[in-house]
Design goal:
alpha+beta, Protocatechuate 4,5-dioxygenase, Chain B, 3 domains, 6-stranded mixed beta sheet, 14 helices
Amino acid sequence: MGIIGATAVPHPPIILPEIGRGEEQKISATIAAYEEISRRIVELDPETIIITSPHSILYADYFHISPGEGASGNMAQFRAPQVALAINYDVDFVRKLTTDAQSEKFPAGTMGERNSSLDHGTMIPLVFLQKAGLDFDKVKFLRIGLSGMSNDVHYRFGKLISRVAEELNRKVFFIASGDLSHKLKGSHYGTVAEGAQFDSEVMENLGGADFLKLLTMDNVMCNRAAECGLRSFWIMAGALDKKAVRAEKLSYEGTFGVGYGVVYFDVGGEDLTRNFAYQLMKYKSYESEKRKATEDAFVKLARYSLETFVKTHKPAELPEDLPEELMNRRAGAFVSLHKDGNLRGCIGTIMATRDNLAEEIIQNAISACSRDPRFSPVEIDELDNIEYSVDVLGEPERAFSVKELDAKRYGVIVENNGRRGLLLPDLEGVDTPEQQIAIAKRKAGIRPEEKVTLWRFEVIRHH
């Protein structure tokens, strides 16, 4: 059999009357859609239900598949301990999925469980299924966490899940649990324009089963929207790869400042023309070539240095015909790497340490890809997805008060008894000098209450 259907659903605890205490009626459309989805799932009579949840165990570079015979949970953290249930895991499915992942060196498995209790991202859809009459003694489950990895890795994981379902001849329904933006109007997290934009695009892409657009949404916009479920939807999209899918958007609400969308996917069979994995690969290759075409000499040099080192494990030779500024100027420089909108490495020097700026960039690009302690070294298969920026630092000057700083214009250096921390200017989510100073202190190991000497500097950013 394989994947017989799928759905994207939210998981607001307030949707349950035991928690909402009347407030749930403000999202009645979401409740009605959830009830309809649950009725359809029960009618399909699946043997196994897979739930991907942002609130299950999450690792940056690994997908956690819940191990054991089963698990239980309740909503005690939301003052409703009476809402409780237990499920049985599909042990054979877990075993084969884990074995296949290991044989293909794919980062997924059952290791590293920190808490076996069912999370609320799993509990909410289960409660609706229980109310719809699903036989929990008959149906088995898989619970899978998300990761910090890229869209294509999540998509490939979904494809692997689908293949295992077919090889085991299981009737499998896929539930992608995830809220949308947490920064809509009225949210206590704050409001940003990207919140409504994100929700609109996700609902359009899910509602049209346009998984290529779903996988290639603007990363900066997604991050600013403080989304919850996009990675869950990416895995689901992979599970639906090469299948003829009819999507139906049942509801969308943003009543409490958080987006709740319900979309149902009816699976009708194979459609080999809709190979979204191939389309995604072509799109990423196109985007990579487009980026390269717009890079200036500074960014080209950083890319050349990094790619040479990753492929050969040796530093690059200094290229010929570099601009005069790179060869004749000495300055500190930072090389920053981003992948899928997320930081992938950033190393730099406050002052010049090399004979010229070109050598400074070459060395700092190597450090950014291999010596940033926050990240594993960059691998060859990541190279097409890396975006570069090079910040050339101006001469630091003393700042005698916070009033002399500007988070958009100036970077900041803090110092206390030989401990020194630096933060570049104009960073996403850093809007005030006070935030700059606090982050720079943390980087230097300086306690918040300790006094520091301040410097400010300007940069020329090449992106």
